[in-house]
Amino acid sequence: MWNSCIKAEYLASKIVQSIEAYALQGTDLVLCDVIDEIRKLFPSCSEEEINDILSLCFEMYNMKQKETIDLVITAPKKFSIKIKQTKDVFEQLIKDAGKSIIMTGYSVSDYFTGMLDSIISKSQQGVYVRFYVNDIEKNKAALDRMLAYRSKYLQFYEYEKNKDDKMAASHAKILIVDSKKVLVSSANLSYHGLTGNIEMGFLVNSVAKSKQIEELFKELVRMHIYNRLNPTA
Question: Using a CB cutoff of 8 Å and minimum separation of 24, what contacts does 73-80 make?
């Protein structure tokens, strides 16, 4: 049996290096070398276990290669720019959400109300929604309806103001759906941000990057950079 003391990091590193070399050189000699090394270093590993490890690493490597990045813009329709539009991408991501929605808002206007209704509907279907807002009070007019539906599925977090720097703010514009797709943009959740301005960003299809950002937000909550808004507030 595979010794439980084997350092997973070392084993994974050697295998991934061999897979990357295999992908570049088109030969299985590097894979044979690493298999021989594993056999010598970890004689308790069976052939079946070695094959299972290699298969898993190949699968993970292939998933990583499938990551995609697409440019997303906001621009007036009269410009006729044939690139994915921020508003269209945002709406589609919300529509496709089946498990979770994580989003940030610096400036939110009434123009965004229709999308907020879609997000409320998603939360009522069991989709976990986490909304990180810079200033709830300044955006309350636009968010008021959504705030009324707070629950374990729909939660708001507000940026803790920096007493030493009154100009500091939560200025990120991010939307993550189902821990696999993330839209990072300069666009606010407003008419000009989604329609009238020139705004740019990227739609990243990546489980690793999505989860990395999600973990960052969790850490910011633990640090009280963001504080959860009380359901009765």
Answer: 73/198, 73/199, 73/200, 73/201, 74/185, 74/187, 74/193, 74/194, 74/195, 74/196, 74/197, 74/198, 74/199, 74/200, 75/197, 75/198, 75/199, 76/195, 76/196
